[in-house]
Design a protein that fits this description.
- This protein is mainly α.
- It is 56% helix and 2% strand.
- It has two domains: 88 residues, Multidrug-efflux Transporter Regulator, Chain: A, Domain 2, CATH 1.10.1660.10; 111 residues, no CATH class.
- The chain has ten helices and two strands.
- The relative contact order is 0.10.
- Keywords: DNA-binding.
Amino acid sequence: MPAAASRRPGSTAAARMSIGQVLEMLRDEFPDLAHSKLHYLESEGLLAPARTPAGYRKYSREDVDRLRFVLRAQRDRFWPLKVIKEHLLEHGVDSEVTSIASRPGPSSTLQPVRLDRRGLAREAGVEEDFLAELEQYGFLTDDVLFYGTTELEIVTAARDLADEGLHPRHLVMLRTAAEREAHMIRSVARPRSRAGDAAARGEAEDFARDLGESMITLHGAMLRTKLREV
């Protein structure tokens, strides 16, 4: 192999990252990302990091870009891995996650965001006092440095309800119901997560996500049904 070829970016072990470095790189945007998730995505054919002679995974910049795309598609669009894999096969990672917003999903019109507290208030069109009220009633977590798409969606929906007289203190039952549903989903998904099996833990996380999507669909359908009775 020519010497120049061996010095191309991403072609040497030094240009690749360990799994710990990848987690650190993505920590701000995906604070809950863990080894198990990466192992699971690899077992599903969505990642294929190189291996050292000792068997350690080494991730290239291309691997990280692909991982970021997959995580954003799951987080911001709620698409299952099958849909994401099909999209990657057809389009690769050159397109933004928003380019597949035509696919169905409860958040299909939302774009990924990363906002500080002032930015969240500005984008949602509310005062920071309103954010404090949402924190008081458990709709937002306090002491967070950055907020994402989900938090923006929560604040925007709460703002619209407050404009009609339904303030956060009136909506605590919604938060409580969501907490109970999450507990129920975790109890069903937990048996799939075997101790010491990183791929199984990643599978359990995605299984819980899919259950949550079905729960959202059911809840929306039931609410529409009940509203027809008004």
